[in-house]
Amino acid sequence: MSSRFEIRLGGSGGQGIILMGIILAEAIGIYDHKFVAQTQSYGPEARGGSSKSEVIVSDVEIDYPKAMKPDLLLVMNQKSCDDFYTDLKPEGILIVDSTLVTQVPNPRAFQVPFTRIAREKFKREMVANIVALGALSQLTPIVSSKAIEAAVLARVPKGTEKMNRDALKAGMAAAKRAKREWLKIEIPPEIPKEDLLDSY
Amino acid sequence: MLLQGNEAVAEGALRAGCRFFGGYPITPATEISEVLSVRLPQVGGTFIQMEDEIASLGAVIGASLAGVKSMTATSGPGFSLMQENLGLAIIAEVPCVIVNVMRGGPSTGLPTFPAQGDVMQARWGTHGDHPIIVLSASTVRECYDMTIYAFNLSEKFRTPVILLIDEVVGHMREKMVVDDEEPIEIFNRVKPTMPPEWYIPYEDTPSGVSPMANFGEGYRYHVTGLTHDVRGFPTSRPDEIGPFISRLHRKISSHFAEIQVAEFFRTDDAEITIIAYGCVARSAKRAMIEAREKGLKVGLLKLNTLWPFMRIAVEKVLQTSKILIVPEMNMGQISREVKRVNRGVARVITLNKVDGTIITPMEILDRIQEAVS
Description:
The complex is a heterodimer of chains A (about 200) and B (about 375). With about 200 residues, chain A is of the alpha/beta class. Chain A is built from seven helices and six strands. Chain B is of the alpha/beta class and about 375 residues long. In chain B, about 40% of the residues lie in helices and about 20% in strands. Classes of the chains: A alpha/beta (about 200), B alpha/beta (about 375). Strand 2 of chain A pairs antiparallel with strand 9 (about 175) of chain B.
């Protein structure tokens, strides 16, 4: 059980939440050689409904394929943040798209404006999910930067490789800034913050 | 390769030799047609999107009669429409595979949410007293293997075979290596060896299965949905009707052992056995592991064959178990069969969930703890 790591990605239909899950599972499963199971849950709408994708990572074969208590929650809108935050493990990592999640339930959440970066830097909100994947790879050790890059490039349509690689890099850079901000946050001093980071 | 359950079904079908797909897209089974629409033409096969599910199974029956291994894939609403032609495939003894990726019902129900509500429909959906083979799968690898197995059984027994999976398994992605060199058993229908004028298409044989001639190869015979004699023509003679219907049943029931696929996990000393299938079998496995960690003697019987019901497997776990737990995403369809086999020997506890979400390991574990306290 200890080797099981549960990731939940949430947002609204059209943000590419399920594609994110697939790329993440491919990066961890194929390029980082672990057991993965990716599942999804979405409404009948093409856009706008609630969308959720989960990736379970393990060193052994996976039985139950859904997240019970996520170790990592990445949310791309306020609704999924509100809905899923209480499921997160107490010591779990929360990453939010600060463009769309304005009320963050926990000051220790990593806040990165994925959608704003996508809109301003790339003129396409569509790549917000790739920006988010870049950030995710920096904020947790669950996936290596190399693996995530290989998986993104293997999945995206021909001709968009450069934009997607840049989006990934932009996400990674934004995550580094977010991490610096994160270290400035006042939290009870019993546990040194650097130790907290290492424990991830 | 990271493969979806539905994609694995498509790959398994190709590996089994399927070269015809007639279907109509429906969530959550669409990916099967999507993959086959690309892959079938590459291997010299045919893909047709029909106008509806009635026509889909009609096309599949026609293609199979012409000698091509054929399949279709659908979900609840489409499966309902297929019931009429399913009966035709049974009575005319046409091999074919029908995949039903179960979603919430009745009617259009919950297109994107999982359920296991079609277990009895798969058994009794088409009218008349008929035998049927229904298989299930709970992992991506099993989707591949069970599709191949479904084709083998359908060819061997000249019968439609239904593969029942659910939205969770159909849409789940796991790592899987598709190795075309890997040796697997492929069964092809037995063809007549006698000259065409001696061919009796529905003649009884020791196994109950008659050799099947491809349409267009000189063996002329009549195919009908009416109860027919050995030459395929409608009959109203009781001495022909009785033996014919008996043979349809005998060809499945006398090969019961060959059709049984189940997995036993730690059932040797189990005092409590969970009986599950499809995606719920995965939750059950996690619940079993956690119960064992708590010192409870729990085992798991995973059913991969749903029909004919695996009586012998259940009888086997009844040798040690005093409690059987049957979690299902319906109001109790397989649990009825378990109770029938059980005949009061053990306590049969049901766990039914019909809210469009998968039964969690916690819910099964709670039921186990309730049972032992």
